[in-house]
Design goal:
This protein is an alpha+beta fold. The chain is 48% helix and 12% strand. Strands 1-2 form a two-stranded antiparallel sheet. A hairpin with a 4-residue loop joins β1 and β2. α2 packs antiparallel against α3. The relative contact order is 0.16.
Length: 97
């Protein structure tokens, strides 16, 4: 009964994901029955993984695999893409708008 946005924010805060000094946590939330996915990033990654980028990763990387019930591969390629983005832009980690 909870919106995926609210749930993922609540869990990310509760689990204190990422390094405190950089606020660089990432949480991928999947609600299979509701057919919803969300990528939540800490403020320290917002210059690298903007909302549009997160939506694109879900749409282009995760959804095709999830449609064929290959959830592991969908998550794997999403994490790999996120990891590459962070690595390629490591000088921006921890910077805020």
């Amino acid at each position: 009964g909870e919106k995926i946005e609210d749930y993922s924010l609540r869990i990310a805060s509760k689990w204190k994901i990422g390094r405190k000094e950089y606020d660089d946590g990432v949480l991928i939330t999947v609600a299979l029955q509701d057919r919803q996915m969300r990528i939540e990033v800490g403020y320290g990654l917002e210059k690298i993984i903007k909302d549009e980028i997160a939506a694109q990763i879900i749409r282009e990387k995760m959804v095709p695999y999830f449609r064929t019930e290959n959830y592991y591969q969908g998550l794997y390629v999403a994490v790999d893409k996120i990891k590459t983005l962070i690595k390629d832009n490591k000088d921006l980690v921890g910077q805020r708008y």
